[in-house]
Amino acid sequence: MKIEVRHASHPEAVRAFDTETLRRHFLVETVFSQGEIRLTYSHYDRMVIGGATPLGAALALGAPKEIGQETFFSERELGALNVGGEGRVIVGGKAYDLAKYDCLYIGKGAKDVTFESADAANPAKFYLVSTPAHETHPTVLLTRDKARHLTPGEAATANKRSIYQFIHPEVCQSCQLTMGFTMIEQGSVWNTMPSHTHDRRMEAYLYFDLEKEQRVFHFMGEPQQTRHMLVANEQAIISPPWSIHSGAGTKNYSFIWAMAGDNKSFTDMDHIAIADLR
Fold first, then answer.
1. pLDDT by residue (tens digit) across 118-144?
2. What is the extent of the structural domain holding 188?
3. CA separation for the pair 121, 194 (Å, rounded)
4. 244: buried, middle or exposed (CB in 10 Å: 19+, 13-18, 0-12)?
5. By CB atoms within 10 Å of each CB, which of 70, 71, 81, 96 scores lowest?
6. Domain tally, the chain
7. Cβ neighbours of residue 224 under 8 Å, at least 6 residues apart?
């Protein structure tokens, strides 16, 4: 298992970042690596994101030094959403089978968590998001048909999409983690426009289901000091609480979103008019 640490950045400092510095602080270029678990520990709300890509052998989620606990789940909860082939997560001896787009919530105090692929030639790719937890909630398997499904946007503004809310107060209880994914429909390219911030919660994005030659322009920064990064398939963004988080692709795509912070209210947003962005 490999882990990288990302420190928080003040918005005034980010105004001076060039492209390379911006990407070094906020873009995770390699999330999935065959046969291993890779993690990134962010000092924004102590969120950990990463990927588990098991091949022939199962991968065990241990507790790296950066977590500071005897086990990974001593004071944490985690969501695992599969974006690859069929796989299995074993939690305390109980097996959960996940097809592509299925999600597993694992609560605080879980023991002996491992990841497996049904077929090493078409491995599962478990995208992992973990946040600190103060109480225990049960482990729950969430298939796509169990998710809260929303269909906002319209073709006229190129933002027609499906939102699947998995770890969400109306679907699955958690301490502070919320998680789901959005599929942009064919012919649309925009997500989260008009934009917003939520200074009470940070967010992380994993872009996926994007052809190798395509890219997403991910927009971030203060509303009057916007910046952008070019993001490829299966790369992730760490989005600070003070930052907007919008994107437009060279074609349609999907992305996993996850949040942590002071509350789990999806309506707690500070909306920004398009005309006020700079």
1. 999 999 999 999 999 999 999 999 999
2. 2-276
3. 41
4. buried
5. 70
6. 1
7. 276, 277, 278
- Residue by residue, what is the 3-state secondary structure of 74-116? CCEEEEEEECCCCEEEEECCEEEEECCCCEEEECCCCCCEEEE
CA dist., res. 30 & res. 253, Å (int): 18
Rounded CA-CA distance 210/234 in Å is 8
Please write the tens of the pLDDT for every residue from 145-182: 999 999 999 999 999 999 999 999 999 999 999 999 99
**Which secondary-structure segment (H or E) carries 20?**
helix 19-26
Q: Pick from 102, 127, 130: which is nearest to 31 by CA?
A: 127
Residue in 238, 239, 262 with CA at minimum distance from that of residue 176: 262
H/E stretch holding 52: strand 48-52
DSSP for 164-179, written as a single string = EEEESTTT---SS-EE
- CA dist 24 and 172 (Å) reads 34
Per-residue tokens: 160: 């027609």
54-89 burial code (b ≥16 CB/10 A, e <16):
bbeeebebeebeebeeebbbebbbbbbbbbbbbbbb
What tokens appear for 204 in the block? 């992380």
DSSP 46: T
pTM for the structure as a whole: 0.96
pLDDT band at residue 265 using 50, 70 and 90 as cut-offs: confident
Asked whether the beta carbons of 164 and 258 are under 8 A apart, the reply is no
The token duo for 225 is: 């000091």
CATH code of the domain containing 218: 2.60.120.10
Q: Please, are residues 80 and 73 in contact by the beta-carbon 8 Å criterion?
A: no
